[in-house]
Amino acid sequence: MPREPNAIDFWRGVALVSIFVNHVPGIWYERLTHRNLSISDSAELFVFLAGWSLGLLVGGKESRKDIPVLGFRLGGRAVQIYAAHILISGLALALLAATAYFTENALILEWHNASAFFQDPAHVQMGIVVLTHQLGYFDILPLYVVLMLAAPALAVIDRLAKPLLVPLSLALYFASLTVPFTAPTWPVEGQWFFNPFTWQAIFVLGFALSRDEGLGAVVRRNIVAIRYVAAPIVLITAVLVWFNWFPDPTKLPEPRLLFLNGKSFLTPMRLLQFLALAAVFSAAYPYIARIPWLPAFMSILGRNSLQVFCVGSLLSLSGQIIRFLYSGSLAVDTIVIIVGVGLLWLTAWMSEWRERH
Prior knowledge:
- The protein is mainly α.
- It has one domain.
- The protein is about 65% helix and about 0% strand.
- It is built from 15 helices and 2 strands.
- It has helices spanning about 5-20, 40-60, 65-105, 115-120, 120-130, 140-160, 165-180, 195-210, 215-220, 225-245, 270-280, 285-290, 295-305, 305-325, 330-355; strands at about 185, 190.
- A two-stranded antiparallel sheet has the order 1-2.
- The radius of gyration is 21 Å and the shape is globular.
- The relative contact order is 0.16.
């Protein structure tokens, strides 16, 4: 039987819907997502909850398993995510190619870093397979693959040297910001949009905070005081985002990444604001749970996050194409959202129906 609605699945469902909406640039409904009043967005929530889920897995019945058995299971999850990424990347390229063909508009082939594939398919296909070439809006799953490949190491450190896990993660995080360094792309020179050396920090923090000991225990004991500190941070950053009051990057001291609002490197400003946001809204779910249908609707999406994310990514690209062809209006945007969110729910429902039967 599927899990009952719960806070983790609910917020993961919220993140998936927000990602779907925000990946259709210019759509009217993106102004209703929380990124309009927040430095961080749904990507941080998605990765944080992935780490949280891993922490619950490793800290639960899986903790009794031998490390090789646990590593094999976590590695299998990484392979599953990798296969999903390769599939949706190929489908996205086919969708762009078909749209360009039927509309006789070759400029569509240049969308989202796809032009390199159509100009040099042999090398770029190799790049896609080894994760060094990523399409725009399809670039978070490679990060997820890397994090899941690192998951067995996290489990080992958690079991053998638990107090070192978060310090080692933060040391790598700040090293990547100050040097700086990231993962390169190939054959087109560049860097990963989601730097795995910094984004691992929010994954590890989710892992650590999910537990009833260590950092997680400290936070639970002091959550009320933490919320009093976090609430002003959330309010102040909402004002900063609303009025775009951010410092001139050229006038910041070195290393600048410590002071910038940067998504690719998950800079400290974004990380701190997300943690404050999570602390404040962690108190909200008991009230949301009283709403008759919303928790169940979002939770079924969260329980089937990989399938929903993959379908949502392709639906977002389809929404972009529809808005391009029909000059996006509120009516078109509304149809895109209603049909898209409905198909996300249908994807989740069919996944669970298949499991039951």
